[in-house]
Amino acid sequence: MFLLWAAEPFGCSNGEEASGGSGSAAHSGGSSGAPPDLGLAGSRPSSTGGDGAGPVGGGGTVALGQEGVERLEVAGGSYLMGRSEGGSDACPPDQSCAPGETPEHVVTVGKFWLDRFEVSVERFRPFYAAYPVGLPAAGAGAHPLIPGSGWQDAFATDLPESRAQLLEQLVCGETATFSPEASAQEEFPINCVPWPVAFLFCAVSGGRLPSEAEWERAAAGGDENRLYPWGADPPDAGRASFFPSALGAVGTHASGRGRYGHDDLAGSVWEWALDWLDTNWYAAGGAECLDCARVSTGTHRVLRGGAYSFEAVTLRTAARSGELPSGRKPSIGFRCAYDQPPE
C-alpha cells in the first residue's frame, strides 16, 4: 500500500495487516502528468454477458439483486477540497498529517448519487455466483464528464479468470469477510477486492466508482468542509471503527453518519476511488477542478476513508492513501456512485 502514513510493509498484495497505523507522516511522492481534458465521454453498459470459461467482452448490466440498495443524493456544487492550514479541517494538533493532502483548493462537482453503505458481502454474493461476468464495453462505467474514465481492456489483465480464482483473491487473510457459503458476516463490507473487480462490479451494476473529488464532497459535507464526516468531534467507537477496533457490519455507527446520510465514510474499510494517486495533484492538474479526476497514468489507485486497522488520523475527510490496482487487503473495500437516482 502506498501510504501517506506508514502502517504496514510496502510491496504486499495480500495478507494480514500490521497492527495499527503509526500516525506519522511518511511519503509524499506519487505519479505526475497532465490532467485529463474535460468534456463529454463514456457510455453505459447495455447488455448482459458472461459464461463459465472466463471474462468475455461485450457484457453489460447483470442481475445482481440491486433492489433495495440505498443510494443517496450528494448535492452538486463547489467546495474546498484538501486540508486547510487553519480552517475547520486543519490537522488536529495531536496528529501528524501528510503534505499530499494540501493545498486546499476549490473543486466543483455535479450532482451524483452514492451508495449509503459500503458494498456488503451479501450484496457482492450474486456477482460472485455469476462470475465470470461479461466484460463491459469500452468506456462503460465512466463519469459522464470525464473522458478516459470508463472501462479499458487493460483493466482485465488483473481480473481473475474464473470463480475459483476470484474466491482465491477474496480470501486474503484471517479477517477476509467473504466465504463461499453464507456466513455470519453477510452484512460486513466485502474486502480483499482489487480495484478492477470493484470497477467491474460497479459498472455491471449500472454505476461507477466515485471520483476522489466526489468522494470527498460526500465525506466533508460539501461546503461545510467537515473535519470528519460527522463534524469536528473527535472519533470514538460510536462514530467509526478504527484501530484497535474489529471490523463489523456496515451501518452500525449511526452517530458517524455524514451530512448526506452516508454511513461508514470514516473507518470500516478503505474505499477505492476512480483516480490514480498523485500527491502533487492538488497543486498541479487538480488545482482547478470542474468534475475532474486523475485518470491519465499512475501506479497506485486512490483509497479514502481509513479503516478498522488504522489510526484515527486516517478518518479525516482530507486523508488520502493508495494501493496498486491489484492490491488485496482485509482493510480495502468500496462503494459505487451513480448518475441517476434509484428507479
Please give a structural write-up.
- The radius of gyration is 18 Å and the shape is globular.
- The chain is built from four helices and twelve strands, in the order βββββαβαααββββββ.
- It has one domain (56-338): paralog of FGE (formylglycine-generating enzyme).
- 11% of the residues lie in helices and 13% in strands.
- The longest helix has 10 residues, at 121-130.
- The model is unreliable at 5-60 (pLDDT under 50).
| Strand-pairing-aware structural class | alpha/beta
Oligomeric nature of the chains: single chain
- Along the chain, the helix and strand elements come as EEEEEHEHHHEEEEEE
Distance between the termini: 37 Å
Can you say what the CATH homologous superfamily is? Answer: paralog of FGE (formylglycine-generating enzyme)
Count the strands? 12
Count the domains: 1
**What is the name of the CATH architecture?**
Alpha-Beta Complex
Mean pLDDT: 85
Name the descriptors.
343 residues; globular; three-stranded antiparallel sheet; 11% helix; alpha/beta; 13% strand; paralog of FGE (formylglycine-generating enzyme); 4 helices
What is the topology?
Blueprint: E1 56-59, E2 71-74, E3 77-81, E4 105-109, E5 112-115, H1 121-130, E6 134-136, H2 163-170, H3 195-204, H4 212-220, E7 270-276, E8 289-290, E9 301-304, E10 321-323, E11 332-333, E12 337-338
Parallel strand pairs: 1-6, 4-8, 7-11
Antiparallel strand pairs: 2-5, 3-4, 5-12, 7-9, 9-10
